[in-house]
Amino acid sequence: MAEYSHVEMIAYTGSRVLEDETIVFVGTGLPIVAAAYAQYTHAPGLLMIYEAGSLAPILDMGMPLSVGDTRAGRKATFLKGLCSAFELTQRGYADYAFIGGAQIDMYGNLCSTMQGDDYGKPRVRFPGSGGAGAMAANCEKTIAIMVLEKRRFVKQLDFVTSIGFGDGSPDYREKAGVMGSGPYRVITNQALFGFCEDTRRMKLLEVKPGVKPSDIQDLVEFELIIPSDVKDMKEPSEEDLRILRDEIDKEGYFLKRQVQK
Amino acid sequence: MKKVSSDIKKISQIKYQEKSLEYWGPTPDEARKIMVNKSKALKDKRTTLKEAVQEHVKDGINLGIGGFVNTRVPFAAVQEVVRQGVRDLTLSFQSNSICVELLAGAMILDPDRVSIKRAEFAWWGYEIIGIAPLLRYLTTNGLIEVDDYTNYGMSVRFKAAAMGIPFIPIRDHGGSDMELVNKGTMMECPYTGRNVYLVPACHPDVGLVHVSAADMNGNARIFGALCTCPEIAMASTYSIVTAEKIIAEENIRNFPNMTEIPHPAVDSLVERPYGAYPGACYGFHWFDMDHIKMFRAAGEEFRQTGDKTKLKQYYDEYVFGCEDYDDFLEKISYKTLKKLNKLDGGQPIVLT
Q1: Per-residue pLDDT reduced to its tens digit, A103-114
Q2: B279 near B287, Cβ under 8 Å?
Q3: What are the DSSP calls for A72-97, one per residue?
Q4: Domains, chain B, ranges and CATH?
Q5: B131/chain A closest Cα distance in angstroms
Q6: Distance from CA of B86 to the nearest CA of A (A)
């Protein structure tokens, strides 16, 4: 088996989740790598929205380092501003949101605002929602990229930035006034998660070959739903890695980095 | 309309002070009155940044900042604001990096010269380069009040102001802690009976926007992502617009569809090549990662060690050591600017 890094596995798994002829609203970093890789391989008709205002750009200048990067607007089919990009999501044009966060809970709610218990004086302050809160609300399905660690897969978020299934009640999202159907997949380097239709709780779908479901549970603070048919995650081949490294992220801006804290 | 709420309180444990439903800047009525009383003449609005900032940027104002993170940010204008000094600012923007960090650093070095009282925003950081150290310092020490929205929330607040309406119903924030802590409110929709989130219009007293090109009257074209620049210029009671290039009024009249900001929304216009540097300006230059990293590193060193030496050095060299932006650009090498021009990739823009 080819040697691959954590971030390569995340990008590769992210790409597998995306279907052809859909629109994905991407955040900076690995979501762009995953979407570009999907376009290069199984989903040539996948299109990206970047929140600064572009739809369906062609990334022939290299990876955008920011979702507002000139490169993210290059050869787009439609290029306006933030209002326009997010209004596409409210109206139902965006199939997937591809976001990250510092913490996630069992219902797929995400925190990227702060840690601590006092909003007026946080213990740690993160950049804030940015587009994530709006993407999780109104793209149809939310895909989250996370580092699999106990301090990140938590029972209680310090601050709910991006809505998931809330407290798990069937009408939580409706009462919240949001439009999308909510959390769909959570991608980590060692496990792929989905959500149980009945309870809206996080469910283990796939594990990295050689890893046991109980190993994954040990890295998660809340109780996972672990079905009997957990599958092995597909690993990238030499050719997949060549494409990721030499064709997609040529400059190594994202794949050569460690996952950000 | 009936006030309602989502079930966020069932899952949230955050302690917060409820914000009163009031504007952190001019009310829609005040903003309209100022606009009504202005001359709408098509006239030459060109001036210098020094004069524009002197005229409009006063203590206690809401300062709206255009661009997005490090794209087409009004860095030249912000630098002049820091140079002249202003206190008790309210900042309003969606996502920004170096402009807001430059104001924050100035406050840390000398709060009698520059101070931020509060900020309404969605995102404050450097994306791939890292978190914003000075935001972290100011917030974790309780030195500024913050008001969190999504990028859509802030953008559409400017849009509502640009539309002349007091609030706008939207489909996000509900069910997140932002519903509790920000100035939006959940109401029952009179038509569908469903919950819908309302956010207040945001009228900055002064908006700072950098554009690709404008004629001398202020009719502005923007290429690349518009970010929220047209809305911010239209929402602000006074706008200071810097332009990469000044073009002929005839060019504007030949392609009026390309005007993103109409002239009455511009009060001061400054021809300012590289006005977004070290941010990027589509069709002109890419961003200067090295300069951004250098400034961020100075802030990060202060946050981690409390030592302000490097931070102070940056301001002494690049802000206070410069009479104006030309002096600042003089310190950036020709080779650097040439490289950044090349990295733009020659994005097609229309100046004719």
Answers
A1: 999 999 999 999
A2: yes
A3: HHTT-SEE-BHHHHHHHHHHT---EE
A4: 21-343 (3.40.1080.10)
A5: 6
A6: 24
